[in-house]
Amino acid sequence: MSEMILVTGGAGYIGSHVCIALLDAGFDVVVVDNLSNSNKASLERVQSICGRSLVFRHADIRNEELIYDMLRTCGVTAVIHLAGLKAVGDSNVRPMMYYENNVLGTMRLLSAMERANVTTLVFSSSATVYGMPQYLPLDEKHPLGPTNPYGRTKLVIEEMLKDLCRSHDGWRIGNLRYFNPVGAHESGLVGEDPLGVPSNLVPFVAQVAIGRREKLRIWGNDYDTPDGTGIRDFIHVVDLASGHLSALRQLRQPGLITVNLGTGNGSSVLDIVRTFESVSGRSIPYEIGERRAGDVAACYADPTVAKDALGWASTRSLEQMCADHWRWQLQNPNGYQGGELPRARER
Ligand code: NAD
Ligand code: WQD
């Protein structure tokens, strides 16, 4: 009999790719998502890619009783917890919403898990918990100091998870710190569908390439980097998803393990522009703007722990990330909505 995994936030960008990885590996999947930042069409496509079905519950993780019932009735053995709000700028404007959704939501989920005696968890944390890099590459021992409310919700949750593991030794927790996920499933059927104007680089570049935006604004070209633009560790979302599977398989020992999921390679904003131009055959007009508040010059992972502890390493190149992102954009110029983008979604 196969294991049943609960994926919170499974209709979202990373979650939909995690569902594909799980179904392809033979796991059964139940998704809980309140669709606050996603569309359930993503899950229909996941099922058609995999040729297998999953269970979807349109619900909020803060509904502890519902989660508890579901854990029991579906026979869930482990949870991959991706549900959360993730917009850094928005978190500065509405911090309490982020604490309520991310921190309180995780507390309710953990409480339901404890009651149902489901004690295996993989959690979506973020490299944003490191804050300003004091050295590079960033290893898991780097001091923590997120610089925005969103990042602080991730740090609070990480601390909570550590306390939980100390409280009794039944818990098995994989705390995954993602770097910059980009790309899409190679079918072009599932990908990132940001609401309104994308704040992240690659979705913005993709919308310029398709003609939905006139030009990219590069936030500063006077950083202390080879070409002056910011450097990040972009990781293919399919590689990231496979990291969750590796974590799930390694969580056989009690305790908590914290792991960076990155490639270990830094690429600049201009590297992304050039690579995207080359894979799409479109030009990406850009202008240079001021630095964006809170940005760092460079940020990339030391992926050694992932290799040693999870037996996982990314395999996909920057070209593949951009090519797959472009295929998704080309096939779905308006994301999951299809046709014209409804006005209400352009916030
Ligand atoms: P996403 O917004 O596409 O997915 C998150 C999903 O969670 C959405 O489908 C949303 O509807 C759902 N959700 C939010 N609050 C919920 C709630 N209270 N109850 C039920 N469902 C809820 O974002 P993503 O990029 O797929 O990110 C997934 C996770 O990874 C998030 O926790 C995010 O913080 C983390 N993360 C993302 C990145 C990134 O750059 N994308 C980087 C590091 C970490
Ligand atoms: C990358 C580079 C920008 C947009 C954010 C969150 C982080 C994590 C991942 C969740 C930077 C430059 C961008 C644009 C630009 N999310 N840029 N013009 O800032 O590394 O990380 O997403 O955990 O928490 O902060 O990613 O894609 O926004 O920016 O020049 O229109 O692209 O300045 O150098 P970032 P990003």
UniProtKB/TrEMBL annotation:
| Cofactor(s), names only, from the UniProt record | NAD(+)
Q: Which UniProt keywords apply?
A: Carbohydrate metabolism, Isomerase, NAD
Keyword hit for Transcription regulation: no
Instruction: Give the enzyme class.
Output: isomerase
Domain NAD(P)-binding: where?
6-324
Pathway in which this enzyme or protein is active = Carbohydrate metabolism; galactose metabolism
GO biological process terms, alphabetically, are:
galactose metabolic process
- Recorded GO MF terms: UDP-glucose 4-epimerase activity
Under the heading SUPFAM superfamilies, the entry gives: NAD(P)-binding Rossmann-fold domains (SSF51735)
Keyword check for Acyltransferase: no
Please give the catalytic activity noted in the UniProt record. Answer: UDP-alpha-D-glucose = UDP-alpha-D-galactose
Q: What is its EC number?
A: 5.1.3.2
Which protein family is it in?
Answer: Belongs to the NAD(P)-dependent epimerase/dehydratase family.
Q: Kindly state the subunit structure of this protein.
A: Homodimer.
Q: What is this protein called?
A: UDP-glucose 4-epimerase
- The record lists the organism as Bradyrhizobium diazoefficiens (strain JCM 10833 / BCRC 13528 / IAM 13628 / NBRC 14792 / USDA 110)
